[in-house]
Amino acid sequence: MKRQALCRLLGRDFSQPELLQQALTHRSYGAPNNERLEFLGDSILNCIIAARLYQLYPRLPEGDLSRMRAALVKEQTLAEIAGRLKLGDHLMLGEGELKSGGFRRPSILADALEAIIGAAYLDDGFITAEAMVLALYEPLLQALDPKKIAKDPKTQLQEHLQSRKHALPQYEVVAIRGEAHDQEFEVECIIPDLDIRTVGIGHSRRSAEQNAAIAAYKAAINE
């Protein structure tokens, strides 16, 4: 019954329910899990959102389209959609993840949603996956304002340095801590021209780099 309720929210039934089962199975629970489906779904999601933005905004340049797509497919946005679907109630997690509240963790929810997109594609093709994704994203696409999509911190920092003819920043992983399913990355951002070194921490290398870039940008504009 719970899976039927999820399928109603997704707007489709799976002719191969084992694919949906796999999409909802975290690696902490066992195999087969949703990692490969998440890999597939991530690429399909990016393609669908990129194509839709291209259609909706025929005059926007590539840079603006890229920032809008990044805002729509980032972990936080995916986790918010997963929350609307009550996806956490359907996840199959190992005992450790259950005890630590993994069903609420944004990274796990986002990965599961991407895995469902991959599962929908394998179950019934690209057109079906596209229809599902666009239905889930319709409220976000309707509310999207290109003028309010801010540049990400790494882009802001890069453009600031380029405008002053400084060399681009370097990002180095300083440390990786925690278990494989819940890692924490520490990344250093280095700007040799300005003798700036800042550190960012996040649950992915990308988020750690962005956090390091925020601190570096603040330091750079005060130079």
- Main β-sheet, spatial strand arrangement: 1-2-3
Number of domains: 2
Shape: globular
Query: Can you count the helices?
Result: 10
Number of strands: 3
Mean pLDDT: 91
Low-confidence stretches: none
Give the terminus-to-terminus CA distance. Answer: 60 Å
In short:
Helices cover 58% and strands 10% of the residues. It has 223 residues and is mostly helical.
Write structural notes for this entry.
With 223 residues, this protein is mainly α. The chain has two domains: 147 residues, Ribonuclease III domain (Ribonuclease iii, N-terminal Endonuclease Domain, Chain A), CATH 1.10.1520; 68 residues, Double Stranded RNA Binding Domain. The chain has ten helices and three strands. It has a three-stranded antiparallel beta sheet with strand order 1-2-3. A hairpin with a 6-residue loop joins β1 and β2. The longest helix has 22 residues. The radius of gyration is 19 Å and the shape is globular. The mean pLDDT is 91.
Blueprint of the fold:
Layout: H1 2-10, H2 17-23, H3 35-56, H4 62-73, H5 75-84, H6 95-99, H7 106-124, H8 126-143, H9 153-163, E1 170-177, E2 184-191, E3 196-202, H10 205-220
Antiparallel strand pairs: 1-2, 2-3
Helix pairs in contact: 2-7, 3-4, 3-7, 3-8, 5-7, 7-8, 9-10
